Amino acid sequence: MHDLIIFRIFYFTTTRRVCHMPETNGEGNAQSDAGVRFVPSPLRLIELEWSVQDYTYWENKREFVMPADVYPHWCLFAVESGSFSYGIGESKGTAGSGSLVLCPPSVAFIRTMTTSTLSFHFVLLSRKESHSAVAEDDEGSENASSRLPVMFTPDNRQRLFDTFDKWRRIDTLSIPDQLPLIGHYWNDIWKTWCLERSEAHYPRDGAHSEDELMLRAAKRLEEQCAEPFGVKELADELGLSSVQLIRRFRAAYRATPGDYLTGLRMERACRLLRETRMTVEQIAASCGYATGYYLSRLFASRIGVAPSEYRRRHRV
């Protein structure tokens, strides 16, 4: 739950080119063999409005009764904890905590559990076609569904998990118009994600970085996030000064290497608090920190609650 993580996103097809997502270490982060895709402008996608047709919260589900299914509406799997592998059209990958998987109508949604339990929100959605975000498709394309993401992870995970909490609370209340209220919060997440992507597509200086050395830097930070590792060590590995590394990394990822690494470690700490019985001291060591006290202070500053309170809210 933090606001400084790399986007993990896949699309069906095509109007703006982006780099494919790198493989991960199997800890519930997204993976795909989709390669390079083309995507529509997020400033066009933000025009979309969604309405909710059905909603179910599945807590600690142990298996999929239907390993594949086809839905008459857009189908959203919003993962709280655990992970599963999916196949939707030509896109394949693994979705973990915080991932949003969106399957178009009348397309087979193949899924397999990759953890012992999975907690997720199942939402059936329809688009309000009055909006033109994907109406102006290229000639010869099959349909507008090929323009929307298959899987994506919002930058602001805390906001996402706050929405998950609201959905669960709305679902337990005997109030009219539950689905429109759930839809209201989904549209907020969708538009927020589109805004985040617009910043990535259109940085303020007008340049889009494709710095191969910084891709390598980000990968090293992901590999070393469980170990004591800092900017100086990374700069030495890459043959750069710390100042050069910070400047180039910020241009590529809109964050310093230190903030990026902290974000990765907070994501790991959140997952371990939700999914294990490890003590805070053990989690600190697993996240590259010397003491549980330091992790607790940093966690409360970044996430907004103490590790013990976060665990209490998310353990089921």
TrEMBL record:
The lineage of its organism: Bacteria, Bacillati, Bacillota, Bacilli, Bacillales. Keywords: Activator, DNA-binding, Transcription, Transcription regulation. Gene3D superfamilies: Homeodomain-like. GO terms for molecular function: DNA-binding transcription factor activity; sequence-specific DNA binding. Residues 215-313 form the HTH araC/xylS-type domain. InterPro entries: AraC_XylS_family_regulators, Homeodomain-like_sf, HTH-like, HTH_AraC, HTH_AraC-typ_CS. Signal peptide: none annotated. This is Helix-turn-helix transcriptional regulator.
